[in-house]
């Protein structure tokens, strides 16, 4: 039976100004960081819907029934404001549903939610992801810091797997290096699966809320924190598949 998964975020638009002597011109580039992840599930038991950040502001479901069309939802590099500020609210000053509250209800109803790290995940760059003290933080197995939570590790680090769990089944302990992560705090009762060796900060955490399951992966799913050595590792596909299997498992 095919299971439906919504991946929101993991896209961005870059604007550059090219200055060539007296002359200058701008260019705009759209980039999708989800390509490798999506390719993993092309021929699988999962139907992945990718909703890029610029689409999610309006198209992300605004009803619980709309969310319940998905067996699991992944938020990756998409800040709270994108989900809070529907264009009808931002442009027209109209009341709209609080989609962070709906995500909490979604998990309580028995579905799975995962947050993947990045510059606009957890608390994010300059604190601008803003998931601290939100209904989404309520259901995650970790707590966000009240300030910029990025930790850059240019020399690289390898995950320290500290617990046996279905999410890391078959992956062993020798993982490729990562280049950064969001610092978070472990919640009481959550299962710490993997850590950052030098700091002990959580890297992979599982938890439950209501009838649902949640996961936090504090590094990225693409560059720059997740380098080619990791994305090309055979365990990369196994890791993400394990995550979805666990999030959507029937109890």
TrEMBL record:
Top-level division of the source organism's lineage: Bacteria
SUPFAM superfamilies in UniProt: Class I glutamine amidotransferase-like (SSF52317)
InterPro entries xrefs: Class_I_gatase-like (IPR029062), GATase1-like (IPR010768), STM3548-like (IPR017027)
Domain Putative glutamine amidotransferase intervals: 5-248
One Pfam short name: GATase1_like
Name of the protein in its database record: Putative glutamine amidotransferase domain-containing protein
Species, as recorded: Caballeronia sordidicola
């Amino acid at each position: 039976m095919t299971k439906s998964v919504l991946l929101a975020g993991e896209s961005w638009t870059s604007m550059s100004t090219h200055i060539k002597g007296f002359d200058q011109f701008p260019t705009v580039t759209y980039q999708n960081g989800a390509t490798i992840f999506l390719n993993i599930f092309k021929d699988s038991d999962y139907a992945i819907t990718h909703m890029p950040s610029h689409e999610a502001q309006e198209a992300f479901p605004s009803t619980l029934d709309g969310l319940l069309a998905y067996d699991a939802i992944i938020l990756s590099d998409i800040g709270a404001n994108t989900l809070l500020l529907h264009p009808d609210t931002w442009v027209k000053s109209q009341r709209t549903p609080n989609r962070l509250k709906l995500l909490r209800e979604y998990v309580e109803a028995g579905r799975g939610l995962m947050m993947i790290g990045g510059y606009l995940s957890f608390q994010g760059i300059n604190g601008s992801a803003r998931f601290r003290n939100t209904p989404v933080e309520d259901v995650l197995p970790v707590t966000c810091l009240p300030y910029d939570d990025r930790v850059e590790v240019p020399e690289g680090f390898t995950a320290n797997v500290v617990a046996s769990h279905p999410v890391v089944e078959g992956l062993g302990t020798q993982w490729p290096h990562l280049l950064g992560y969001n610092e978070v705090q472990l919640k009481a009762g959550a299962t710490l699966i993997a850590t950052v060796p030098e700091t002990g900060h959580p890297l992979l955490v599982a938890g439950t809320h209501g009838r649902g399951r949640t996961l936090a992966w504090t590094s990225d799913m693409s560059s720059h924190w997740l380098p080619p050595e990791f994305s090309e590792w055979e365990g990369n596909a196994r890791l993400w598949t394990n995550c979805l299997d666990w999030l959507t498992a029937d109890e």
